[in-house]
Amino acid sequence: MILHKDIAKKTAEVLLQVKAIKLSPTEPFTWASGWKSPIYCDNRVTLSYPPVRVFLKEEISKIVESKYGKPDVIAGVATGAIAIGVLVAQELGVPFIYVRPEPKSHGRKNQIEGHLENGQNVVVIEDLISTGKSSLNSVKALKESGATVKGMVAIFSYGFDLASENFKNSNVDLTTLSDYFHLLEQAMDSKYITEKELDTLTEWRKNPENWKP
């Protein structure tokens, strides 16, 4: 879910500018899953650009407050959303925790790092949504620890139907600053891609798992 079209396009613009998102329709990337893709997103790059990270921090914080009020705790999904989660928690003046993909195999064997009390309201911060599986795994861990998860806010989503189904089935409210649709719109407006490249990027989005360049 996108709240503001202008913010969605501005977010897409800055992600393209700092190359947090790279579009390469003619020389596709290979994801860890093995999928061939004309797009690669690494939002950790934004942390190296103070004006960009301030923009993201402020806009995510606005969404959190407008949709959920001030939560008791902000939770970042490890590892990509730890830094932006800390920035949002600092902006809102609330505690921060982060959630590992799975419990540690040593020490206290924590999956959730930081102080979380039973029944506290938590908003989860994520940097990128693909299928949503890892993000929802964090929500599950938080709920099992007694947290009340109000929702999740992410920087960017590919907007896959599978992700929408996964969030719906898990009854988790998701809002993103930007998504694939607004990215392509902004990329065309700024002449970052051609009409032919737009066709390729649009085609990939229809069936990313089986797309062939």
Short descriptors:
single chain, 213 residues, alpha/beta, Rossmann fold, two-stranded antiparallel sheet, 7 helices
Question: Would you write up a description of this structure?
Answer:
There is one protein chain. By secondary structure, the protein is α/β, with parallel strands linked by helices. It has a single domain (5-210), classed as Rossmann fold, CATH 3.40.50. It is 40% helix and 22% strand. It is built from seven helices and ten strands. α1 (5-17) packs antiparallel against α2 (50-68), α1 packs across α6 (180-189) and α2 packs across α3 (82-92). The mean pLDDT is 93.
Q: What is the β-strand count?
A: 10
Structural class from helices and strands? alpha/beta
CATH class: Alpha Beta
| The number of domains | 1
Q: What is the string of SSEs from the N terminus onward? A: HEEEEHEHEEEHEHEHH
| Integer-rounded radius of gyration | 17 Å
